[in-house]
Design brief:
By secondary structure, this protein is an alpha/beta fold. The protein is built from six helices and eleven strands.
């Protein structure tokens, strides 16, 4: 592992195998952060729901091997099985009970936001990002810490199923598991937190990454690394 890498980032899996190179190469020297959406494969990618389940079980074995080094975040498609209020497209009723039992039993091993600090910047990893407009619309504290957002999930869970018109909803902004990267184009400059970097998935890209100010989407079916200079590069 290069000595300038401080984290490995795995965006939306949806049953894909791109992450599996970590099974041979990961050495536990830096955190490995999965941004959620392990389930519900896309039909055009020829991945069956059975394949996706086996893939998810491999991810869990990887997590068990490296315990605190592998960070698993919730995506909206995972929450679809954890709480029926979050029901998403491509939902598998066949595997609902298995996923629901598993996620409920292991809920302490999943979270909404993970946070690290590096070079004077707070770096927040989540499935789709913390949109300041979502904070304002729900009259939450202007607090972008992982502890605060994770606690909100347990006390105000219904607000985490809010999504914007970009995703067929009625809100101006989606939650940290539903926000579309295009929503951040609507922010005023003052709404961007200059001391915070956000790394997100959820909005599928053709390739590489998409940046808006200090928010980077990496949902392009490949692994990335965060360097000590707070840059994001392909793994």
């Amino acid at each position: 592992m290069r000595n300038d890498i401080i984290a490995i980032i795995c965006p939306d899996v949806h049953g894909r195998k791109f992450w599996e190179k970590l099974l041979e190469e990961y050495d536990g020297s830096v955190p490995c952060i999965f941004l959620g959406d392990y389930l519900d494969p896309y039909p055009n990618e020829n991945i069956s729901v059975e394949d996706a389940k086996k893939n998810f079980e491999k991810i869990w074995e990887f997590k068990e091997k490296w315990t605190d080094k592998v960070i698993l975040l919730f995506g909206n498609h995972d929450l679809s099985y954890y709480d029926r209020y979050f029901r998403c497209c491509r939902y598998s009723s066949y595997y609902h009970k298995w996923y629901n039992d598993f996620l409920t039993r292991n809920e302490d091993n999943f979270k909404i936001v993970h946070e690290i600090e590096n070079n004077g910047k707070k770096i927040l990893f989540s499935h789709s990002g913390i949109n300041p407009s979502w904070i304002k619309e729900n009259n939450f504290e202007d607090n972008f810490s992982a502890d605060y957002i994770n606690s909100l999930f347990h006390t105000n869970r219904e607000t985490f199923n809010q999504y914007s018109y970009y995703r067929g909803g009625y809100m101006n902004a989606g939650s940290p598991v539903w926000a579309d990267i295009r929503e951040y184009l609507n922010l005023d400059d003052k709404d961007y937190k200059s001391d915070i970097i956000q790394i997100v998935g959820h909005t599928q890209l053709i390739n590489d990454t998409f940046n808006i100010k200090n928010i980077t989407c990496v949902d392009s079916r490949q692994l990335f690394v965060l360097t000590n200079e707070n840059t994001i590069e392909k793994y």
